[in-house]
Amino acid sequence: MFTERKISKKLIIILTVLLTFTVSGSLFAQRTGSVGSASGSTAGLAETYQMTFREVAASTLPVVVEVNVVNIVETQSFPDAFEFFFGNNPNQREQESKPREFRQQGLGSGVIVQTESDNVYILTNHHVVNGADEIKITLTDGREYEATLVGSDPRLDLALVVIKTKENIPVAVLGDSDDLFVGDWVFAVGNPMGFASTFTAGVVSAVGRETANFSNNISFTDYIQTDAAINPGNSGGALVNIRGEVIGINSWIATQSGGSNGLGFSIPINNAKNAIADFIKSGSVEYGWLGVNVRDISDESKVAMKLEGVDGAFINDVFIASPADNGGLMAGDYITKVGTKVVKNRNDLVKVIGNLSPDLWTAFELYRDGEKQTVSLKLGRRDDKKNIAEDGSIDVWPGMTVVEATDEVRESLNLETNKGNVIVANVVKGSPAEASGLRPGDIVLRVDNKRIKSMGDFYMRLNSSESNEVMIRIYRGTREAIIGIVKE
User: Fold this and answer.
1) Would 178 be classed as within a structural domain?
2) Cβ atoms of residues 452 and 415 within 8 Å
3) Which of 109, 126, 127, 260 is catalytic?
4) For the chain, how many structural domains are there in total?
5) Which of 45-78 are b and which e, b meaning 16 or more Cβ less than 10 Å from the residue's Cβ?
6) Measured distance CA(360)–CA(49) in Å, rounded
7) Would residue 467 show up in a list of annotated catalytic residues for this protein?
8) CATH code of 153's domain
9) Suppose 396 and one of 151, 223, 317, 365 were both cysteines; which one would form an S-S bond, judging by CB atoms 3.0 to 4.6 Å apart?
10) Contact of 295 with 273, CB cutoff 8 Å
11) Catalytic site residue 235?
12) 334 lies in some domain
């Protein structure tokens, strides 16, 4: 009976779908004079798609521009060897050896996102305009304008430029990239390889892709993956949905040939909306700052911390006097949620915090000593140099990474003893842990004279200390020693 019901439901769904296509095809067939014809139904359905695609192209092509950039580079020029050794004009040789300017040209795309008085703002990629001495914007109708850089950010790989004009300029409609699903129709619009106003179709292949960006900084964005053809020159152009709304800024492709392999990646437009306002306001993106070093922990460590099967980000260190320190977060806390955003891993936490506004009061759901808690605090403004001294040291507590003493860890640290269950894996330069003399490979035996059996024990004892000084008994080489670590 259960099987028959399942089959009946499947038949109903199939028949409904077939009826829908048939009716749709018949309606369009009537318009083309092909009533009752199978080929007419198919043609009608195809024309529906075609007309929709035409409408999307017509509305989005005018708001995507060509971005031409010039980088002026000085090069040393020398005469050829014959002239150098046998020439009779030393003044000419001297002139030829002077530095000369070389103009490096680049090409990308941009999206007109906002107008304000005579200012027309165009969003593109950071890597398109980075270091540019000249920027020229060309609209689809051929109008050209000189542009100036408003602001740029390598972490988001976004930049905003502005042109000045009193002329009528079309502006893109920005959609909601959170309302995007795998399989949705999307269109890539840009200027690939210099072919202006190119429009390609595809689907969303994946969302939430994580990958390295174009700098050594941490990336504060994830990506929409699409098989719509994207090629060099598309960078900074629009990824558009079936309603003609911009839902992404095309950024890069994964390719071995240099051309499109159906692996294009776009920055979600929701990640760019706040950046546009920040660029106009101050020329740079303002990031929320928590003040912690975080990491992902192994399954063995999760068991030791009573976190089996729980996803989140583990606080390794807390910056002294940071929002986290002032708000009550501690090393050893395991964050699972920030506001309404679920945190799955370290990268999630970094992106969520970075995309929140500074000075925002935020609730953190976390586990501490195996118990679920909520801590609310006020975020600060991120400044990468704020907590780093001139000698490269970092003012954090405790400034050490401890891990469960698995066989793999003992082997990687070349430890022959089976003594102890918690090992120091890393020590931060200039931190209290380094100042106290702790080293990678030290085996933690006791904290404040309490035996340490696991990572959970270590952080519980570290955080429960009633004074700023914690006594740690370690085993190093063939000896035990007691080290005092002080939180200043």
Assistant:
1) no
2) no
3) 127
4) 5
5) beeeeeeeeeebbebbbbbbbbbbbeeeeeeeee
6) 45
7) no
8) 2.40.10.10
9) 317
10) no
11) yes
12) yes
